[in-house]
């Protein structure tokens, strides 16, 4: 009998709100979160999607707020919610059988930039002794393992904007291999800083709608001009379904399949043929034992960039054909959460399946004629037995999760 991997807990910290209920409600309302960002006021792009009212000192304690970069703080808050949602108590579990696999792109960029200024203005003696543990990317999983008493494999995965989805796929592999009984997985990102955003702006990747922040992220729209950077964390608790059932846990959904691939094409631009994306999509379906016609819903990567949206849409049309799959991109609300995007969107995909509801693609006014897909523009009730969640990153790194109804 095939082993099934269950999602038993969810945690979400996103621009749509702190906690899954708040985030889900705003995503379903199609209410964009982009706004003017004082930190970016001197740059060419002055808008972003921030987590509202996030206070690390209040949520985690003053000591943690001083010693942890924001990308770790976001993850810990989401992880606490997910563990509680799963009905687990990390004080009582067998930590040797608990793994942590989290995705992240850049580590603690805010800490690096701030401490670089300290070095230049005050000298090396003024640099924080906590600099390295605050900014190293591996500290995402490392700190979560410490927080949760998880003694199993502790991995931080970096596949750019596919990091969160890749982490979930690898976490599933650990369970299938019998190396863990529980895996805390997902991704976190907090790289909205002047330097990082200047780099994205110089690449012409960001929307320049500074005068209309709420209307800037518009996936699949004919007038899209780039993505809006976001931040956040999405955490899932995964267990083998038999183990979850044995302890009486609620199974929210299943991670039924995972596909990963590389474009082997360009460091930033997607392969216009979509060959790599297609490989990942077909691999996820095959891993799930599913046919293209079985797909009811796709939470698309849908970044609101001219190249990505058309390429992804072409591949979805080619792979799914005339399948009745309703597509959405929740980035119209949350912006692009970069390395956390795949995890945030996996959480939302699970909720879509549970609620029987496809969230709208915010700001989609006129569908690009090159996008030959059924794209949701309003909250749409639908029974979803199988959904795909797509994530693609710089370097041509692709990850697709197949998520099925419990």
From TrEMBL:
SMART domains cross-referenced by the UniProt entry: PKS_KS
Gene3D superfamilies per the UniProt record, alphabetical: 3.40.47.10
UniProt domain Ketosynthase family 3 (KS3): residue ranges: 2-405
GO biological process, one term: fatty acid biosynthetic process
Record-linked InterPro entries: Beta-ketoacyl_synthase, Ketoacyl_synth_AS, Ketoacyl_synth_C, Ketoacyl_synth_N, PKS_Beta-ketoAc_synthase_dom, Thiolase-like
UniProt cross-references to Pfam families, sorted A to Z: ketoacyl-synt, Ketoacyl-synt_C
Entry keyword annotation includes Transferase: yes
Keyword presence, Transferase: yes
Keyword annotations: Transferase
Gene Ontology MF terms: 3-oxoacyl-[acyl-carrier-protein] synthase activity
Family statement: Belongs to the thiolase-like superfamily. Beta-ketoacyl-ACP synthases family.
NCBIfam families (UniProt xref): PRK07314.1 (NF005589)
Protein's recorded name: 3-oxoacyl-[acyl-carrier-protein] synthase II
Phylogenetic lineage: Bacteria, Bacillati, Actinomycetota, Actinomycetes, Micromonosporales
């Amino acid at each position: 009998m095939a082993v099934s991997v269950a999602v038993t807990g969810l945690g979400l910290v996103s621009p749509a709100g702190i906690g899954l209920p708040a985030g889900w409600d705003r995503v379903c309302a199609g209410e964009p979160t982009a706004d003017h960002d004082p930190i970016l006021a001197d740059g060419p792009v002055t808008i972003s999607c921030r987590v509202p009212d996030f206070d690390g000192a209040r949520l985690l304690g003053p000591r943690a707020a001083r010693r942890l970069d924001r990308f770790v703080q976001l993850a810990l808050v989401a992880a606490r919610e997910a563990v509680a949602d799963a009905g687990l108590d990390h004080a009582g579990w067998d930590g040797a059988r608990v793994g942590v696999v989290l995705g992240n792109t850049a580590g603690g960029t805010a800490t690096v930039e701030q401490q670089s200024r300290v070095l230049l203005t005050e000298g090396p003696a003024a640099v924080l002794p906590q600099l390295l543990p605050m900014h190293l990317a591996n500290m995402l999983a490392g700190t979560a393992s410490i927080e949760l008493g998880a003694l199993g494999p502790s991995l931080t995965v970096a596949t750019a904007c596919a990091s969160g989805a890749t982490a979930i796929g690898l976490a599933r592999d650990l369970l299938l291999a019998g190396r863990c009984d529980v895996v805390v997985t997902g991704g976190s990102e907090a790289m909205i800083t002047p330097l990082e955003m200047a780099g994205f702006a110089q690449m012409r990747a960001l929307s320049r709608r500074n005068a209309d922040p709420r209307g800037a992220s518009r996936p699949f729209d004919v007038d899209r001009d780039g993505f809006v950077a976001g931040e956040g964390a999405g955490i899932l608790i995964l267990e083998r379904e038999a183990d979850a059932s044995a302890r009486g846990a609620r199974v929210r959904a299943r991670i039924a399949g995972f596909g990963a691939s590389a474009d082997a094409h360009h460091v930033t631009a997607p392969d216009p043929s979509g060959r790599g994306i297609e490989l990942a999509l077909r691999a996820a379906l095959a891993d799930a034992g599913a046919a293209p016609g079985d797909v009811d819903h796709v939470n698309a990567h849908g970044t609101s960039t001219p190249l990505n949206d058309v390429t992804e849409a072409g591949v979805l049309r080619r792979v799914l054909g005339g399948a009745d799959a309703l597509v959405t991109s929740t980035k119209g609300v949350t912006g692009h959460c970069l390395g956390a995007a795949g995890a945030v969107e996996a959480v939302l995909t699970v909720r879509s399946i549970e609620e029987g509801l496809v969230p709208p693609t915010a700001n989609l006014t006129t569908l690009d004629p090159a996008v030959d897909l059924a794209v949701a523009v309003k909250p749409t009730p639908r029974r979803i037995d199988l959904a795909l969640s797509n994530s693609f990153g710089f370097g041509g790194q692709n990850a697709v999760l197949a998520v099925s109804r419990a």
